[in-house]
Amino acid sequence: MNVSRRHFVLASSAFVVAPNPAFAATPREITWDDLIPADVPYGEIIAEGQKDEEQDTWLPIFDENASKLNPDLNGEFVKIPGYVVPFDQTTSGVTSFILVPYVGACVHTPPPPPNQLIFVKSDIPWKQDNLWDPVWVIGNINHETQVTDIAESGYALQASKIEIYEWE
User: Fold this and answer.
1) What is the pLDDT of residue 17?
2) Residue 13 has pLDDT above 70, yes or no
3) Please, which pLDDT band fits residue 108 given cuts at 50, 70 and 90?
4) Going by DSSP bridges, is the β-strand pair 118-126/28-29 parallel, antiparallel, or unpaired?
5) CA–CA separation, 47 and 60 (whole Å)
6) What is the Cα–Cα distance from 103 to 113, expressed in whole angstroms?
7) Max Cα–Cα distance, the chain, nearest Å
8) How far apart are the C-alpha atoms of 137 and 156, rounded to whole Å?
9) Which helix (H) or strand (E) holds 140?
10) Cα 153 to the chain's mean position, in Å?
């Protein structure tokens, strides 16, 4: 078979340009404990609190450990499970939200500390009928404080993929 130089170059360049799934980055699967620096015990991220008698709720008072972030995660490509608390939502779906470690956080209870909240932005709207279902969020996580009406988060994540969390 006689292959012209032009056909050879075009065929060879297809391997360079075409994405190869074998070379796709694999996210580092993390848990909520990983968001806390190794030298900060989980029990030391919440200080004393006070009870709001009128609302019958507990108002946590966070100490300096609640804002300490894990330096090993800054800029990492990660995969973390959690629950969606919508922030920006259109008819196409949710485009920004706070990812929380347990169902109902920030909605019916006081928010978790900043190092236990992730502000997520997604270019692809997440359309899900039941926002009480857990999800996996995959993307690049960074140290970035976000103050919203709902809570203060210590991390920001640009989602490249959001999917339903499947119990194993």
Assistant:
1) 45
2) no
3) low
4) unpaired
5) 7
6) 15
7) 86
8) 12
9) strand 135-147
10) 11
Neighbours of 88 (CB within 10 A): 12
> Alpha-carbon distance 91 to 93, whole Å?
6
3-state helix, strand, coil in the chain (%, to 5): 20, 45, 40
- DSSP-derived secondary structure for 76-128: -EEEEEEEEEEEEEETTEEEEEEEESSTTTTTTSPPPPGGG-EEEEEEEEE--
Burial group, residue 48, by CB count within 10 angstroms (0-12, 13-18, 19+): exposed
State how far the Cα of 102 lies from the Cα of 112, in Å rounded to an integer. 9
Residue 85 burial (CB count, 10 A):
22
- 121-130, pLDDT tens digit by residue? 999 999 987 8
Fill in the DSSP letter of residue 22: G
Specify the DSSP class assigned to residue 167. P
* 7 three-class SS: helix
Tell me how far apart the alpha carbons of residues 87 and 68 are, in angstroms, rounded to a whole number.
24
Residue pointed to by tokens 């507990």: 58
In this prediction the pTM is 0.79
